Amino acid sequence: MAIIHSTQFQKLILQWFDLHGRKHFPWQKNKTPYRVWVSEIMLQQTQVNTVIPYYENFMHEFPDIKSLARAREDKVLHLWAGLGYYSRARNLHRAAKMVMEEFGGKFPDNLEDLQALPGVGRSTAGAIFSIAYNQQAAILDGNVKRVLARFQGITEPINNKNIEALLWQHAERYTPKQRAADYTQAMMDLGATICVRSRPQCMQCPLIKYCAAHQENLTHLIPAKKAGRELPVRTATFLVLQKDERILLRKRPPMGIWGGLFSFPEISGEPLKENIQAYCRQKLNIPVTKYQPLKSFRHTFSHYHLDIHPVIIPVKRMPTRIMEDGQQIWYNPHEPESVGLPKPVQLIMRALR
Ligand code: SF4
Predict the structure, then answer these.
(1) Distance 174 CA to ligand 1 centre (A)
(2) Which residue in 36, 55, 140, 350 is a FRET match for 43, CA 20 to 30 A apart?
(3) Neighbours of 253 (CB within 10 A)
(4) Pick from 270, 251, 272: which is nearest to 261 by CA?
(5) Is any ligand 1 atom within 6 A of the Cβ of residue 116?
(6) Is residue 40 among the annotated active site residues?
(7) Of the listed 40, 61, 164, 270, which one is catalytic?
(8) What span, in angstroms and rounded, lies between the C-alpha atoms of 322 and 39?
(9) Across residues 338-348, what is the average pLDDT?
């Protein structure tokens, strides 16, 4: 591989950005630390095109940190519903309150305070600091890891701690003092549009002349990952209790899968009549004589597959006792309330409509 100095690396990246970088995302207009922060959190784990409509809705509802801090958590989760990884939304909300209470409403303008915000790790803090304040700070998100691992010809798994530390060293070394915002955006763009996971477009890449993976024909082997294990499969029956037009939903506990969102009562396993009847009798005090299965489907989390079997159970009269803890609502799919619904619940509601 030809040797390259960091100033040359930066020059190539910034020249490429001037010609081909992406400069028209909604968070690049009226740039404020708040707007950049929200975009960076939404972009963790999620593609740009998916994020844009969510981002615009979110900004419409919560144009500044004050409005987000004052919002009900249900409302925040409602606007997040469908984006997945809901802890991001809960952390944004907590962080907004923290900024109001501990930083006097002023968004942090240094790396240390940024990293103290819930949901902001080293790379996200670097992205906010460089993009919002145009200050030198390295990032190492998934895209940048891939670019640097290929550029350096690193064939070891990139999720290995030592390799990650090495990649951070490269990231720090290449990040410039000048035009830090453009450089960060350029590295993200290069990873997202040119140095993509399969079939990178090396002929259009500004780094081609110096890239070890390209020179040594290793692009298909990098980034290597530790062998992952196959995802386990779990099965659940969703009890869609229907009274007139309305459906019973329960708020899930704050921690764990879909924390704070509203979902159906559920039992593990496939829909067996005796299990459904026993659960409804013991937990909900409802006699079940008939139910109707809906189409089953699979939802995949990062660590397991969930095979979902929804069943509609018509209810004539719901005992008031189960509503007493305030964690239940009767949800009308035709007049939806502003509460967060996980994607599979949204799909079932859509089928019911
Ligand atoms: S030359 Fe190819 S493999 Fe190397 S950084 Fe560019 S796109 Fe990635």
Answers:
(1) 16
(2) 350
(3) 11
(4) 251
(5) no
(6) yes
(7) 40
(8) 39
(9) 90
* Contact criterion met (CB below 8 Å) for 259 and 252: yes
The strand pair at 233-243 and 305-314 is best described as parallel
Q: Which residue has the higher pLDDT, 245 or 133?
A: 133
Ligand 1 in contact with 306 (CB < 6 A)? no
Q: Which residues pair with 330 in a beta bridge?
A: 248
Atom of ligand 1 nearest to the CA of 146: 8
Under DSSP, the state recorded for 307 is E
> Angle at CA 294, nearest 5°, toward 290 and 297?
140
Alpha carbon distance 157, 225 (integer Å) = 4
pTM for this model (two decimals)? 0.80
CA–CA gap between residue 12 and residue 210 (Å, rounded): 11
Q: What's the CA-to-centroid distance between 147 and ligand 1, angstroms?
A: 7
Compute the distance between CA of residue 262 and CA of residue 248 in angstroms, rounded to an integer: 9
- Residue 192, ligand 1, Cβ within 6 A: no
pLDDT band at residue 204 under the 50/70/90 scheme = very high
pLDDT, tens digit (0-9, with 9 covering 90-100), for 217-255:
999 999 987 766 788 899 999 999 998 888 999 999 887
Nearest to 123 by CA among 83, 292, 6, 114: 114
Taking alpha carbons only, the member of 328, 284, 301 closest to residue 85 is 301
- Structure tokens given for 171: 């990231």
Distance (angstroms) between ligand 1 centre and the Cα of 309 equals 44
Name the more confident of 53 and 334: 53
- Let me know: does 44 contact 51? Beta carbons within 8 Å: no
